[in-house]
């Protein structure tokens, strides 16, 4: 009898826990429904596709609630080797991904109405939902093959979304730059994964962690190289320097809701993968990835903030480009606790700091993009100077934008931003990375300049006649949701850390 026939039934028939996989599955199914429905829905009723997509993402997020009662795993070959696990870390990151995609969808409803001749609605919603499904799958992935598949499912539709505007050269160039750099990074990661597999004989993260620390001496260099190369693809997704060069042009060339989506959901994808491959798969190689990520964190926050300062060399600099450089700087802060996990006795606490910061950043950054979408409806160029006197035309939007910018800067009344930065700073100090904490402190001061300058501009007297900004319902909902989230968390910032308790270990 063959060895396959003698194998336990567990290897031959794998039951599927549909409750565990429901959130990303529903997003994918709704995407397919929207794509097929687009063939039959009359042009005048195309906006219904957007509302179906919004409802689908909201329902996918609600499907996280039944998973709160405990960890669930499926697609397993043994009790310790599963391809999909819905644990606390997974649920928190899926909440961030699906919540971010939902807010981007609300922004998109208005954008598609304004650009109906440039953006095909059916294809747009299908691509957005497909990317969200891949992004929601990635935090639950517990083997290297599923991680890469999820990464590409999240990324490939995003390339198309960036370049989806008909006849827009800037959009096409941004998509091409995004695509070429991402494909190169993915190829490097695949080579790294092949080296890891050759060294360990497995792709499951927990098994890799056990076996990679006992590889033969002659395979040690191969394993070490595999670890480094595997990290490259995920470092690209986080927009870490020097893999950040695609960010400014891509954000400016993409439809604004997609720039918002990439700034939050794209980062959640990258950081989820980075956390899983470092602290779950390669903890024994902390002496390799720890110093590398610490250096990347210092370089990323510095280059991002200096890049944002350089945008102010001209009065006509773009608000979206400034947010793009700001997102690079914020990525540097997010990298700090992951690097600290390599040196800390309490790695779970360090990872929790990154997750908490990501939740804060996601809410307030999407809020800033929502206000940018409002201004962009009357000022197509969306320059910083277009925000002058916003308080005179729309006081609530101006106050919320000021609040979002102060949160990103880490200043009161943006208490949640200050709390998140202190949490990250403490993670670095507790891990003995005092030099990194000092660099972070310097960068926070640098960032204050451009955040406060933008904030002050909102309350200056407008130049010429003030033009009132009309708030469509979807845009109102997006701004309100992010504003309420930011203000509520500023009132009770400890809730973020409790919610971000990852339970990875």
From TrEMBL:
<feature type="transmembrane region" description="Helical">
    <location>
        <begin position="147"/>
        <end position="166"/>
    </location>
</feature>
<feature type="transmembrane region" description="Helical">
    <location>
        <begin position="48"/>
        <end position="68"/>
    </location>
</feature>
<feature type="transmembrane region" description="Helical">
    <location>
        <begin position="178"/>
        <end position="198"/>
    </location>
</feature>
<feature type="transmembrane region" description="Helical">
    <location>
        <begin position="20"/>
        <end position="41"/>
    </location>
</feature>
<feature type="transmembrane region" description="Helical">
    <location>
        <begin position="227"/>
        <end position="247"/>
    </location>
</feature>
<keyword id="KW-0520">NAD</keyword>
<keyword id="KW-0812">Transmembrane</keyword>
<feature type="transmembrane region" description="Helical">
    <location>
        <begin position="124"/>
        <end position="141"/>
    </location>
</feature>
<comment type="similarity">
    <text>Belongs to the complex I subunit 2 family.</text>
</comment>
<keyword id="KW-1003">Cell membrane</keyword>
<feature type="transmembrane region" description="Helical">
    <location>
        <begin position="288"/>
        <end position="310"/>
    </location>
</feature>
<dbReference type="InterPro" id="IPR010096">
    <property type="entry name" value="NADH-Q_OxRdtase_suN/2"/>
</dbReference>
<keyword id="KW-1133">Transmembrane helix</keyword>
<comment type="function">
    <text>NDH-1 shuttles electrons from NADH, via FMN and iron-sulfur (Fe-S) centers, to quinones in the respiratory chain. The immediate electron acceptor for the enzyme in this species is believed to be a menaquinone. Couples the redox reaction to proton translocation (for every two electrons transferred, four hydrogen ions are translocated across the cytoplasmic membrane), and thus conserves the redox energy in a proton gradient.</text>
</comment>
<feature type="transmembrane region" description="Helical">
    <location>
        <begin position="432"/>
        <end position="452"/>
    </location>
</feature>
<feature type="transmembrane region" description="Helical">
    <location>
        <begin position="259"/>
        <end position="282"/>
    </location>
</feature>
<feature type="domain" description="NADH:quinone oxidoreductase/Mrp antiporter transmembrane">
    <location>
        <begin position="141"/>
        <end position="446"/>
    </location>
</feature>
<feature type="transmembrane region" description="Helical">
    <location>
        <begin position="88"/>
        <end position="112"/>
    </location>
</feature>
<keyword id="KW-1278">Translocase</keyword>
<protein>
    <recommendedName>
        <fullName>NADH-quinone oxidoreductase subunit N</fullName>
        <ecNumber>7.1.1.-</ecNumber>
    </recommendedName>
</protein>
<feature type="transmembrane region" description="Helical">
    <location>
        <begin position="322"/>
        <end position="343"/>
    </location>
</feature>
<feature type="transmembrane region" description="Helical">
    <location>
        <begin position="396"/>
        <end position="420"/>
    </location>
</feature>
<dbReference type="InterPro" id="IPR001750">
    <property type="entry name" value="ND/Mrp_TM"/>
</dbReference>
<keyword id="KW-0472">Membrane</keyword>
<feature type="transmembrane region" description="Helical">
    <location>
        <begin position="355"/>
        <end position="375"/>
    </location>
</feature>
<dbReference type="Pfam" id="PF00361">
    <property type="entry name" value="Proton_antipo_M"/>
</dbReference>
<keyword id="KW-0874">Quinone</keyword>
<comment type="subunit">
    <text>NDH-1 is composed of 14 different subunits. Subunits NuoA, H, J, K, L, M, N constitute the membrane sector of the complex.</text>
</comment>
<keyword id="KW-0813">Transport</keyword>
